[in-house]
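Tokens as discussed.
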């Protein structure tokens, strides 16, 4: 890369997936904090980078990128190891789960955390969240039983960088009610193994995520910026 990559991030947001991947593979980049407390993600300057007003965004020599899975896939085309190479036997399996996590699990979690995107009254929000919580649990059952060997190895990759935060957030948001990662033994073992990597420890400290950010999460206490 002839130009530094610039990752626009906020603590404990979807940018965490990208940070984990970039740290795991020592991808040179500059961090650009987005102040959620002042809704900087909706500012005109940020909307020029990501017109959706969401985090993350990655500035590249070829223009800005948004959507977490798209950023991870783009990085994997440049930095070997993040994903199996094109035309390899393992490529389809990796793509399948990357897009499943993005389009299914992450999409369900986002609505769980932001039910006001669907309904307006408090009673309706509670009802919607109950259904979405059950949907998250069903989806975790799917990956618990059907996910590939990459879960058991917990090796650094785009897939594990995407999965770990998606296991963290339902334990905290909106209140963690009805969620118990230990009820998914395979995913729980993955979370315990993944959070022991040195690069995970570094990112977790930077974002104030605690010592066990994925297996037994606590609310973030970031030294810089706001998670909400």
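Sequence:
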């Amino acid at each position: 890369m002839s130009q530094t990559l610039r990752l626009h991030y906020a603590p404990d947001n979807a940018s965490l997936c990208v940070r984990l991947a970039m740290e795991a593979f020592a991808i040179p980049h500059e961090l650009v904090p987005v102040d959620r407390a002042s809704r900087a993600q909706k500012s005109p300057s940020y909307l020029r980078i990501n017109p959706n007003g969401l985090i993350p965004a990655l500035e590249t020599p070829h223009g800005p990128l948004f959507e977490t899975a798209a950023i991870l896939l783009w990085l994997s085309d440049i930095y070997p190891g993040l994903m199996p190479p094109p035309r390899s036997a393992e490529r389809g399996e990796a793509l399948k789960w990357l897009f499943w996590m993005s389009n299914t699990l992450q999409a369900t979690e986002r609505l769980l955390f932001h039910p006001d995107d669907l309904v307006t009254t408090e009673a309706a929000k509670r009802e919607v969240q109950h259904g979405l919580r059950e949907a998250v649990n069903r989806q975790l059952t799917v990956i618990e039983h059907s996910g590939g060997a990459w879960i058991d190895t917990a090796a650094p990759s785009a897939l594990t960088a995407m999965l770990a935060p998606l296991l963290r957030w339902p334990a905290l948001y909106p209140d963690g009610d009805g969620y118990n990662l230990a009820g998914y033994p395979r995913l729980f073992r993955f979370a315990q193994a993944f959070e022991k990597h040195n690069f995970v420890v570094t990112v977790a400290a930077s974002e104030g995520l605690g010592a066990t950010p994925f297996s037994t999460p606590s609310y973030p206490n970031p030294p810089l910026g706001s998670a909400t």
